[in-house]
Amino acid sequence: MKFRFNKKVLLFFATYSLALAILPVAQAQFGGFGLGQNNGAAAADRDALAKATADATVKVLAARIKFLDAQAKLMEALGLKNDSVIKASEALRAKEGATSSTDDQVSALKDSTKVSADADKQVDASIAQSNQLSDESKAKFAEGTGRFIQGVILEKEQVPAIQNLVAQGKSVSASASPFEKLKVIKLVKPVSALAIMVPGDVAEGTSTLGKIMKFCKTQNITNIPNSDKATASLGDL
Fold this sequence. Notes:
Structural class: mainly alpha
Number of strands: 0
Shape: elongated
Low-confidence stretches: 1-5, 9-23, 25-37
Helix content: over 70%
Number of domains: 1
Largest sheet: none
Mean pLDDT: 82
Radius of gyration: 22 Å
């Protein structure tokens, strides 16, 4: 006797099995979901988490664009090739706006991380051995430094917001029923990525900015946009 399975039924069981496989990973990231009780408030909480995640992601995206634009200008001032950095910035700009999902934006942020890190290394190496810059190059370096300051401050401001998102994720997870776990996993995935990525970016950016500011002093570059904001937000670099 032959059995014929409906494709939709097979898809349901495959999806549910995948959810059961993924669930322990998400539980480890967010401290355990718990089964909880489903109620009307749970749906509202999920919507609030999705909106807050989208808002934070947009701001992190804007900060990363500031970083990349700053690095492109700094590299130009130092005589370094900056094509890859400019392309990365353009790719992120293409993800701005309501047409891109939060998942797509987070994915684009991940893709830009290596480009940004490589640019930082090149800038670090160049300022460690650079000769005296021309007046034109100093002006470009000052402009790039001002943009870099904006990027660090903007991304640093998102750290508390992302910490709150993690707390929201735990709360939403605790109130989700077993059949809602897939929705919750989808919601907390970008939060998990931001929670891992952003604090490290801020620490690395602050460290790099300290080196940039010291280089400005040695080059007698004084007209730096946002330098007062850097001191107020980041302390004495």
